[in-house]
Specification:
- The complex is a heterodimer.
- Chain A is of the alpha+beta class.
- In chain A, 32% of the residues lie in helices and 25% in strands.
- Chain A has 4 domains: 70 residues, Elongation Factor Tu (Ef-tu), domain 3; 78 residues, Beta Barrel (OB fold (Dihydrolipoamide Acetyltransferase, E2P)), CATH 2.40.50; 232 residues, P-loop containing nucleotide triphosphate hydrolases (Rossmann fold, 3-Layer(aba) Sandwich); 126 residues, Bovine Mitochondrial F1-atpase, Atp Synthase Beta Chain, Chain D, domain 3 (Bovine Mitochondrial F1-ATPase, ATP Synthase Beta Chain, Chain D, domain3, Orthogonal Bundle).
- Chain A has 14 helices and 28 strands.
- In chain A, the strands form 6 sheets. In chain A, strands 8, 18, 21, 22, 23, 24, 25, 26, 27 and 28 form a 10-stranded mixed sheet that branches. In chain A, strands 1-2-5-4-3-6 form a 6-stranded antiparallel β-barrel. In chain A, strands 12-11-9-14 form a 4-stranded antiparallel sheet, with no helix packed on it.
- In chain B, the strands form 5 sheets. In chain B, strands 9, 13, 14, 15, 16, 19, 20, 21, 22 and 23 form a 10-stranded mixed sheet that branches.
- The chains are: A alpha+beta, B alpha/beta.
- The interface between A and B is large, with 59 and 54 residues.
Chain lengths: 575, 429
């Protein structure tokens, strides 16, 4: 079949109008030939025979009459073994390979193969005559830590296919045919280890979706205990600049107990990606003893890279996440920042001259954000395995004000809200998650009843603190003052966490449960001190001992010694 | 062959449209005798943005397409010269047309970036000691109008230990331009400086070109192994120029009239800051005035999300609180072993001084400790915070120890004992 062609009739920013000769699909990918480079774009509107394309590159040099060619396929990513440890841009271009080819700068119009061209040890798991459906495994290859399942492409029509041919175990090139399948009408299909999938379509080759009810351990106390995230759930982290969004996400990326982490750096600083790139290969994953990079894929479309590709980057990331979920793995997708993605939509909407909604964001902002977060989920696969995609997105609200469209649209659809506050980050209280304003709908690792009681004390403490600002310490009763100090203690020794301390930076769930119980017993206790000076001195001491306890190794000799010291101190003043 | 068109279809704001064919998006053209670039193509209708403004343009004026995008000359001859936003000499020197390079080029591949590791000494203690400037960093100077930000930039231009300074002025008052020129000439720093100056009276389109011109030139020097510092003043004028142009082109405004792509506009410029492995580096220091001292105003707000920290200029000095260099920990571990600890304690004591000052203002009794703090705060402000202080980092650290020794006993400073043993000045001598 001949490819549909067209020619350029207009250029406005990164939107190009093309007069098409033939039929055209919305959202299909096309190329524009400019001199000897080809620029990739996506059809976002069709009007008569004029297609509006958003170009993923700078549009300088395009002229009226330039030839366009359409592929008939939607914007897709290549799925296959070899994705892990890689660094891609928003369109799945491998950046290190690009650097090797083009040097320091991102030359436009260069598209490289994302799947490394190499041989893999293939082990089949089906035999001739077996029935398979899209998403079913036909074999596997070892990719780093995992059995990378080679699956029947998700895009085939969802019905029974019969395996007609399957190769024996052995080394095969990633693009050589490993199987032939046939449907009941006799249409046969050759399968390699690689296939493509459109990024804006969710992968649904599973049995059914389950409720996200199992906590995802991030080893951040404040999150796991107070504001838990569930496997297959969603959470968002809004915060003003300098509040530590990216640092918190990096902590989550490093310490979370999941199989695979996909980091989508969307429209943020390039320097931060470099930190991940240099740091992760050096760090070891405590669960496997291998380099952290081996479980990581980075999608990086930083702020100075083309805006349209930024819009695609979060979808590229979530598609890769869904692909690995299909193999029975737990995947965590961290997107930083979804505001930049929303801004990319806003820019495009402006070019299309759509009627703007609030703050000029398009009217469909909310539904698009909702649809994106809905791609998270815990599922039962057809082989009975349970797997999940968890999505955490940061939001960068203008002026740090959460009453803006992107934050609000996000809050409607996520299961947990970790709001960062400038107040706390200014006071160097990290992670700067605001403990009272934030919320979570998931169950955590600690008994939720106790957590709620602890939170109530925090709430009371805050009230007392507000009151004290008016009436002074003198006007506060000793009872209230103790409540105030208890809240401060909870904040200092539990909610705050030192990400630079080798021990305190990641706290195992067992340790969290254990220390929380001790802390809770202190919060519950009544103390027989009346003098405020004495109360303050006592709580200062408790805090000091507790912090020292936090810095001892779990279950070590010192840990037990320090625990005793702390408990003795508390006992000495108890009623 | 260059075709000349003589029928201008419309003139709106600074944008003229002509009917022409074979024109490429982003190309340069001459409208009358002013440069213009192609910003939109629609069939054979070509929209051109005229750099010098469309005022005085006649519908019969000649439009000539040059078949190339906006370029700027790059050579050593640029040093010591002053140009306008469109690259025309502003001094009496000759026009440069050799070795033309494109402006607004592609961005650096993130996988080619390296972790910044070299500090830039400026001789200003509030920067060197407390918020170190690092090579390849991008930092704005947040300031209220009326603060001496241009004086600060001029000082940095004179004192910073870099090879080349590129100064981009946007919406400068003419006196400020003269101030920069005269100060740099007098100090001898002009020979390593290139200036792209748009004054408030110049056409608005040129204002938006200044950062691109400055950064394109700076990038080439960096690729050739030079350590380049780009000083931009004032990015709020740049953003306002973008706003003005967007609104005349009937774009939908997003926040307080600014275009929706303000973030991308600013980011694509700031992200030019880079350290090339095996070559030079490009560092950006840009003044952003905050209308009404409001950091949530769209320009400083978007800037804050892009840059790696910020300097707050307030009451004539760089504020120790609120100012932040996100990259300082990459370098201040390698300067001198007392750098970090001294920095932290001095800031903590200064915060205590502020509290004591508040107490004093409310008429409370001053304790001995408070008196010590007041003395310390005073010394700190005059000897270290004053913008006219120009001393090397090591001398500034020594001075810090002297100030502490003048005011406190060693154990009052909260510094580690081994550092005190090594650095505490011996008063008897």
């Amino acid at each position: 079949m001949d490819k549909i062609k067209g020619y350029v009739t207009g250029v406005n920013g990164n939107m190009v109008s093309v007069k098409v000769e033939g039929s055209i699909t919305k959202n299909e990918v096309g190329f524009i030939y400019v001199g000897d480079t080809t620029l990739k774009g996506e059809v976002i509107r069709v009007n008569g025979d004029i297609a509006s394309m958003q170009i993923y590159e700078m549009t300088n040099g395009i002229k009226v009459g330039d030839v366009a060619e359409f592929t008939g396929e939607m914007m897709s990513v290549q799925l296959g073994p070899g994705l892990l440890t890689q660094v891609f841009d928003g369109l799945q271009n491998p950046l290190p390979d690009l650097a090797e080819k083009c040097g320091f700068f991102l030359q436009r119009g260069v598209y490289l193969d994302p799947i490394p061209n190499r041989d893999w040890d293939f082990t089949p798991c089906v035999k001739v005559g077996d029935k398979v459906r899209p998403g079913d495994a036909i074999g596997s290859v070892p990719e780093g830590l995992f059995e990378h399942k080679i699956m029947v492409p998700f895009g085939l029509r969802d019905k029974q296919w019969t395996v007609k041919k399957i190769v024996d175990a052995g080394k095969y090139n990633v693009r050589s045919t490993v199987a032939v399948i046939e449907d009941e009408k006799g249409n046969s299909k050759e399968l390699t280890m690689v296939f493509s999938w459109p990024i804006k379509k969710a992968i649904t080759c599973y049995d059914k979706r389950l409720r996200p009810d199992e906590p995802l351990v991030t080893k951040v106390r404040c999150i796991d205990t107070f504001l838990p995230v569930a496997k297959g759930g969603t959470f968002c982290t809004p915060g003003p600049f300098g509040a530590g969004k990216t640092v918190l996400q990096h902590m989550e990326a490093k310490n979370s107990e999941v199989d695979i982490v996909i980091v989508a750096a969307c429209g943020e600083r390039a320097g931060e990606v470099v930190e991940v790139l240099k740091e992760f290969p050096e760090l070891t994953d405590p669960r496997t003893g291998r380099s952290l990079m081996e479980r990581t894929v980075i999608i990086c479309n930083t702020s100075s890279m083309p805006v349209a590709a930024r819009e695609a980057s979060v979808y590229t990331a979530v598609t890769l996440a869904e692909y690995y979920r299909q193999m029975g793995l737990d995947v965590l997708l961290l997107a930083d920042s979804t505001s930049r993605w929303a801004q990319a939509m806003r820019e495009m909407s402006g070019r299309l001259e759509e009627i703007p909604g609030e703050e000029a964001f398009p009217a469909y902002l909310e539904s698009v954000i909702a649809a994106f977060y809905e791609r998270a989920g815990k599922v039962r696969l057809r082989n009975g395995k349970v797997a999940s995609v968890t999505i955490g997105g940061t939001v960068s609200p203008a002026g740090g004000n959460f009453e803006e469209p992107v934050t609000q649209a996000t809050l409607k659809v996520v299961g947990a809200f970790h709001g960062l506050s400038r107040e706390r980050s200014d006071a160097r209280k990290y992670p700067a998650i605001h403990p009272l304003e934030s919320w979570s709908k998931y169950t955590g690792i600690v008994d939720m009843d106790l957590v709620n009681k602890a939170r109530a004390i925090l709430f009371r403490s805050n009230e007392v603190n507000q009151m004290m600002k008016v009436v002074g310490e003198e006007g506060t009763s000793a009872q209230d003052y103790i409540i105030y100090q208890k809240g401060e203690l909870l904040d200092a020794v539990y909610l705050q966490q030192n990400s630079f301390d080798p021990i305190d930076q990641s706290v195992s769930p067992e340790r969290q449960k254990y220390t929380f119980e001790v802390l809770y017993s202190i919060l519950e206790a009544e103390f027989k001190i009346d003098d405020k000076k004495e109360i303050r001195a006592f709580f200062n001491q408790v805090r000091q001992e507790f912090l020292d306890w936090n810095n001892t190794e779990w279950d070590s000799e010192n840990f037990k010694l320090q625990e005793k010291k702390l408990k003795d101190l508390v006992e000495s003043k108890k009623v | 062959m260059e075709k000349v068109y003589t029928k201008i279809e419309s003139i709106v704001g600074n944008v003229v449209t002509v009917r022409a064919s074979g024109v490429k998006n982003g190309d340069l053209a001459l409208v009358g005798d002013s440069y213009a670039n192609v910003i939109k193509l629609d069939g054979d209708l070509v929209s051109l943005q005229v750099f010098a403004g469309a005022m005085g343009i006649n519908t019969r004026d000649h439009v000539k397409f040059l078949g190339r995008p906006m370029q700027v000359s790059y050579s050593e001859d640029l040093l010591g010269r002053v140009f306008t936003g469109s690259g025309v000499p502003r001094d009496n020197g000759p026009e440069l047309s050799e070795n033309m390079i494109e402006i607004g080029g592609p961005s650096v591949n993130p996988s080619k970036r390296i972790v910044p590791k070299n500090l830039i000494r400026t001789g200003i203690p509030m920067i060197d000691v407390f918020n170190t400037l690092v090579e390849s960093q991008k930092l704005p100077i947040f300031s209220v109008s009326g603060e001496p930000y241009n004086q600060l930039l001029a000082r940095i231009a004179m004192q910073a230990e870099v090879d080349i300074i590129v100064l981009g002025g946007m919406g400068l008052k003419y006196d400020d331009y003269l101030f920069f020129r005269d100060t740099l000439e007098k100090s001898g720093a002009m020979s390593r400086t290139i200036m792209f100056i748009h004054t408030a009276a110049d056409p608005i389109v040129e204002c938006t070109l200044v950062p691109d011109m400055s950064l394109a030139v700076a990038e080439r020097f960096a690729l050739d192994g030079r350590k380049v510092l780009v000083l931009l003043t004032d990015m709020t004028n740049f953003a306002d120029a973008q706003k003005e142009m967007a609104i005349t082109m009937e774009q939908v405004p997003s926040n307080r009239g600014y275009p929706g792509d303000l973030y991308s506009c600013l980011a694509s410029r700031y992200e030019k800051a880079v350290d090339f492995e095996g070559a030079g580096s490009l560092t950006i220091l840009a003044v952003t005035t905050m209308p009404g001292d409001d950091v949530t105003h769209p320009v400083p707000d978007n800037t804050g999300y892009i840059t790696e920290g910020q300097y707050y200029l307030k009451n004539g000095h760089i504020e120790p609180f609120g100012s932040l260099s996100r990259l300082k920990q990459n370098v201040n571990k390698n300067t001198r072993n007392d750098h970090r600890s001294l920095m932290d304690s001095m800031i903590k004591l200064y915060a205590a001084y502020k509290e004591a000052l508040e107490k004093k203002a409310m008429g409370f009794m001053m304790s001995d400790w408070d008196e010590k703090l007041l003395k310390y705060g005073n010394l700190f402000e005059t000897k270290l915070m004053d913008l006219s202080v120009n001393i090397a980092l090591e001398d500034a650290l020594d001075l810090g120890w002297d100030i502490l020794a003048d005011c406190f006993e060693p154990n009052e400073t909260g510094l580690r004992s081994d550092l005190i043993k090594e650095y505490w000045p011996n008063k008897e001598n």
